[in-house]
Specification:
This protein is 40% helix and 33% strand. By secondary structure, it is an alpha/beta fold. Strands 2-1-3-4-5 form a five-stranded mixed sheet, covered by helices on one side.
Length: 172
């Protein structure tokens, strides 16, 4: 009996763990339950920007069909703009920058198929702080780039959640 458990123990443990996770409502990050009536959307903005692509990617990964014309969808999200900023957050004892604060602001609006603005241009933002190492500028630059990408993904997820919240209030 013990020999059988030793061979099958890891498998049984994995099955038990999966059962517990599925029972508690665990959901992979990025997976958003989108109602069927919201699965068609027009996304307006500059398609060449990283923020547009991040929003489009999160919508498409959640099975939202992005259409070319606002007439083809019940709602339209318009990405008005993205603003990036960086400022020094702290100095060391030699008055050199020790930390930078990054801030990304996304301005958007949401309208219905008739062109009525349901949400006027609104800004959402996210901030991150990172340590600056003047002796390793390449690594610091790579870290900033990675943080910017994470911030865009965070803003894209915030925007999709706001879109879903709006749709709840518009439902009859």
């Amino acid at each position: 009996m013990i020999a059988v458990f030793n061979r099958q123990g890891p498998v049984l443990l994995l099955i038990a763990l999966l059962a517990v996770l599925s029972g508690c409502g665990f959901q992979l990050r990025g997976a958003i339950a989108i109602p069927d009536e919201l699965k068609v959307l027009h996304l307006a903005g500059d398609k060449n920007t990283a923020i547009y692509q991040a929003v489009a990617q999160i919508l498409q990964s959640n099975e939202v069909e992005l259409v070319d014309s606002p007439d083809q969808a019940p709602y339209q999200i318009k990405i008005v703009g993205e603003k990036l900023s960086r400022r020094s957050a702290s100095l060391n004892t030699r008055a050199k920058i020790e930390e930078y604060e990054l801030r990304t602001t996304l301005t958007y609006s949401i309208s219905d198929s008739e062109g009525n603005e349901l949400i006027e241009p609104t800004a959402i933002f996210t901030e991150r702080t990172y340590s600056y190492d003047e002796n390793n500028v390449n690594a610091t630059t790579a870290e900033e780039s990675l943080l910017r990408q994470e911030m865009r993904e965070n803003l894209a997820a915030q925007l999709v959640r706001r879109y879903l919240k709006l749709a709840e209030t518009q439902a009859p």
